[in-house]
Amino acid sequence: MFWTGLPLRSNHARRPPLMARPAVPPRTAAAPGTRWPRTTLMLAAAALLAMSAFLLPAAPAVAAGSTNITAPVLANANVALSGASVIDLPSGTTTYTGTFSGTGALTIAGSGTLVLTKDSDFTLPTALQHQQVTTSGGNWPYPIVTDPDRPAVIVDAGATLQYGNGGSTGVIGDYPYTYVTSLQLNRDNIEVDGTLVLDVTNREFNLGTISGSGLISQPRFTWGSPDLADDVPFTGTISNGTGMNFGSAAFRLSLPSAQAVDNDGSAIVSARNYTLTLPENFYENAYGSDINFHTWQAGLIVMTGVDDYATPSLDTATLAHTVNYRGINIEGANVQWGNGTTGQFFLPATPSDSYINIHNDGSLAFDYDRPVTLDTSISGGVYQQSLSTPADASVTISPTPGNAVTFATPMNYNGTTTIGSGAELLLGTGRPGGDSSLLSGASGDEIADYGTLLVRDTSTPVTLQNINGPGSLTQSGQATTTLAGMTAYTGKTTVSAGTLALAPGAAGISASSDVTLASAGAVLDLSRAGNQSVRQLSGAGGSTVRLGAGTLTVSTTAAATFAGSFSGTGGGLTTDGGGTLTLTGRSATPGGTWHLGHGTLALSPRAQISVGSLLQSADSTLSLNLGTAARAEAPVEADGAVRLGGTLTVTAAPQLAKGGQITLIHDSAAAAISGTFSGLPQGGKITAEGRAYRIDYAADSGHDVVLTSAAASAGTSASKGGPQAAQSNVTAGTGRNQSGSTAMIRVALASAAAVTLAILLGAAFLMSRRRSRPRGGHRAPPAGPRRPTSPGHGSGPTWAPTTSRPRDSAWTPSPGQPRDYRGDPYGSDEYGHGPAGRTGRPRRPRR
């Protein structure tokens, strides 16, 4: 808060050139011909005289109502103020051994330094005192200042006022509020436009309400503690050389506008039962600084600036020192870096030049709106010996969209790590030298995952314990991540690189909504965890699920495709749920049992499972896509018991000649396959792509389940049964192809029948022609040349018969075309000769 009214300061003639004063708006120029009033002319003359005072050497002038007390101060005399007073300091340092008292305001002007060695106590005149101080109430009250008084002490720009000279005295202050709180709240507010130096040791003191835009500086190794309290409208720089209190358990602080904090000592930041936000950047000029946080009750401290070196290039440089660091000490406090609207990370540093110690179950939250990186370990040691002791702490990635925090170094704290909704915690940078980890093993170690947890270590194995919440987990580094304890998170699990393993005794990832092995080389290692289950499983070609000796139950409720492989000795797979799990890779789990419990297990054309035993329940389906090419091996091979009882579907199969065979299941165990598929008894018919097959459970003495083609494939001759057909129909011990011989016999019989039919048809035709000739023979044509014919007389026109026209009695010639009396379409001449030389009955000539 700011005071109102005019400042109590002397209007002396000389002002340092750096003094900042409000600009006075220029007057409007008078119109031409305007006559100036006499009063105006007098004021102008006075202004000219005042300006000459700056141009001509003269003694300091003091405005009416102000007192210049420079002389008694230089003489080390005690001064009793009786109004506005000014000290016009000469160059150099003036050490004052006297005191100030009385009522009024004191202005420090000039270009020198005034050092106070004794405490002084004076107040503003009663008429100017309107500041009110109340308390918050409760068992632990703090003061609340309203309507603060104007400054009692003013340090002009260019001047320096120093409280103390290495001792415990030298402070100006009046403390009437001790009855309100244990804090000695100073009623003498101060404005600093120049420099205020605090060289007081072994004492905690308050400066009242601080305003101005200058510099407040505490020297190095000055073991006093200035208290910055209540609303502080100061806009300049605060330089902490040793120790300074920003708030306290006894008072609140609001410091919204300071330009910066040069922290070369210990900044002690405190908040009790309220949120203290400090937007200032903290800078370090010398090694060995730290910021210490304290909160009580519901207190929270929010830092939205940056704590770095005055030379930013040193932030992440390898520094040549071993004992001094930039440090953060969280003493049972609740601290937050960022406010969700910035990407300026509070501590840009490396492990070689920084530390974060959290004591007494303190907490640290990160709240940014873009990716940031923490390269300093969170631990619990003492100062630079940070890693000597683990911390007991809570760390939170706040639920802000875009808030992605990378831990680039191993963490050394036990406790809860919370990932907010929409936020990400990334362990490791994904580059060599940037691995990270979290401690595990303590009962309180857990990860509350409401967002995304991404592990990217390249070489350092990580163990994560007790992950819960609706968030997801992604393993993307080449190093192995092991999950231990209760892993009850319900989001997705993705392995995009490296290995995600379950520790012995781990509860597993059965609550995870989906498990995906997203790339070749991705591994889900269950070999040490015993029997496990997942809700949904999918994977890319080249990925692997290591079962060991345990059984994995996949409770698929929808459709999922796993293109990788299952491996293990003694381990197996159980399908559950009502969905379809499609396998497209090759899996080998010798000695293990695969149990088709519920839903569908589908095998693609290139898939094969080599198992110990195969057990099929009535509610399950084995779906086989056998492809279109012949295969030399069965899609299912077992070396133990095979018990069938569910449904079989065949979605595709190679084209086979009738009698061609496909082996579905081969069991190399001593015992024969037991049971049948539902609705498919021995010899039962099954159809695939419109082609019929018969099933045989007794092939190879009951060790194979075989489909036999019941008819030749459409569009394929029996002699072209294809490689599958030829291979399937070879007779053991002879090598003769039975289907080929049969086809040759059939072709020979068909040829003989065709020849016989042709002979019979020819004989019948000749007999019919013979019966159509007239009895007694036919007359020979007359000798000599034939007479020419003409229309209407003699033979018909010369034309060839159209064989496509039927010889039918109903046929009628076209006009001018002759025909005989029998309706012969070929006609004849007058001698009975037709155009083909046939003999017919004589026709009566036309007249």
Describe the 3D structure:
β1 (66-68), α2 and β2 (79-89) form a beta-alpha-beta unit. Strands 47, 50, 53, 55, 57, 59, 60, 62, 63, 64 and 65 form an 11-stranded mixed β-sheet that branches. The chain has a 9-stranded parallel β-sheet with strand order 3-5-9-11-14-17-20-23-26, with no helix packed on it. The chain starts with 37 loop residues before the first helix and ends in a 76-residue tail after the last helix. The chain contains 5 helices and 65 strands. 8% of the residues lie in helices and 34% in strands. It is mainly beta and 847 residues long.
How are the SSEs placed, and which strands pair?
Layout lengths: L37 H18 L10 E3 L1 H5 L4 E11 L3 E4 L3 E11 L2 E4 L15 E4 L7 E4 L6 E3 L4 E4 L26 E3 L2 E4 L5 E3 L3 E2 L3 E3 L7 E4 L1 E2 L5 E4 L2 E4 L6 E2 L5 E4 L2 E7 L2 E4 L3 E3 L5 E7 L3 E4 L3 E3 L16 E6 L2 E4 L16 E6 L3 E4 L5 E3 L3 E2 L11 E7 L6 E4 L5 E7 L4 E4 L18 E4 L2 E4 L6 E4 L1 E2 L3 E4 L5 E4 L7 E4 L3 E4 L11 E4 L5 E3 L6 E3 L2 E3 L4 E3 L4 E5 L3 E4 L2 E3 L4 E5 L3 E4 L2 E11 L2 E5 L4 E9 L3 E6 L10 E3 L3 E2 L3 E6 L8 E7 L17 E4 L2 E8 H4 L1 E6 L12 H7 L9 H34 L76
Parallel strand pairs: 1-2, 2-4, 3-5, 4-8, 5-9, 8-10, 9-11, 10-13, 11-14, 12-15, 14-17, 15-18, 16-19, 17-20, 18-21, 20-23, 21-24, 22-25, 23-26, 24-27, 25-28, 27-29, 28-30, 29-32, 30-33, 31-34, 33-35, 34-36, 35-37, 36-38, 37-40, 38-41, 39-42, 41-43, 42-44, 43-45, 44-46, 45-48, 46-49, 47-50, ...
Antiparallel strand pairs: 6-7, 62-65, 63-64, 64-65
